[in-house]
Amino acid sequence: MHGEYKVPGGKLVVLDVEVDQTDSDAILRDVQLSGDFFLEPDSALTRMRDALESAPADMSAAQAAQRVSEALQPSDNLLGITPEGVGIALRRALGKALSWDDIDFDVIHGPVVPPMVNVAMDETLAQDVAEGRRKPFMRIWEWDDPAVVIGSFQSYANELWQDGIDKYGITVCRRITGGGAMFMEAGNCVTYSLVVPTALVDGLSFAQSYEFLDQWVMEALEKVGVKARYVPLNDIASEEGKIGGAAQKRFANGYMVHHVTMSYDIDAAKMLEVIRIGKEKIHDKGTRSAVKRVDPMRSQTGMAREDIIDVFLGHFRDKYHATDGEITQHDIEIAENRCRTKFATHEWTYRLP
């Protein structure tokens, strides 16, 4: 059995192993640990390997990492390899965790629908994937109406200025993921949703999974000239300030949605009439009292939003060998019905008043 894991910012960890099945237990044997990492002294590799030999085959990645950690000495130097990385490589070798290459992806752009329908599709399409009606996918949203999409756990009154909502005719949608409010007008940002099996992030902490799932978009941003970095827990930033943020929802059916919104060209003055943003957040988003727009991607790339999206789609398609998928009219109708029964209801929108 063979498993591989690329440590973020580190090196490739490779683990080969066999499993012996007894009457009551399954144990690991013939563990081999390799990769392009660095460590000193050489004996550390033997101790790490031996820590897994004869261990229970059903242990979690965290339990495997703990075994490896306990085998290390204070004087050991590990570069590019971590105990957590060894644990994930083991789980992949045993078929308990997935890698990107194990997943057959679709890549989808659009269609243009109201923001609330996009919010509903994060739930309805994820259900389709879990029930085998659709492949895992990355979908870039398009929308036609202004909206504020608030996090699942945000208070409506604490986050929004009702006068601004009424003044600009803005729809308020509450999404299924946590995180902060998104100010959305047609063409002012780039939002994508990624629906994958939770086994893809097996062994990763919640914090680690955010950066792991967004590595592809960090590479795509570099292609369009944005020097981005990940800021834990869930922010993407550049030298000019925050670009966007991510959020997740993990379902009991073994799948999850991970989505990101990145600012392209936002009317900051209007946004501040609609969303209650404290001084710390204003500074974090790169706005000042004299600035009228938040435009990190437009100003840093000089590219049209459509061209940036084309790069994103192409990079995901090439990196993960994804095929082009689509949203059908039937998909939209299901999402519209979910809006009527859940997302557009007073009970959902004001569940935290």
TrEMBL record:
The lineage of its organism: Bacteria, Bacillati, Actinomycetota, Actinomycetes, Actinomycetales. PANTHER family: OCTANOYL-[GCVH]:PROTEIN N-OCTANOYLTRANSFERASE, OCTANOYLTRANSFERASE LIPM-RELATED. Residues 132-324 form the BPL/LPL catalytic domain. CDD domains: LplA. It comes from the Bacteria. Keywords: Ligase. This is Lipoate-protein ligase A. Transmembrane segments: none annotated. InterPro entries: aa-tRNA-synth_II/BPL/LPL, BPL_LPL_catalytic, Octanoyltrans_LipM/LipL. GO terms for molecular function: ligase activity.
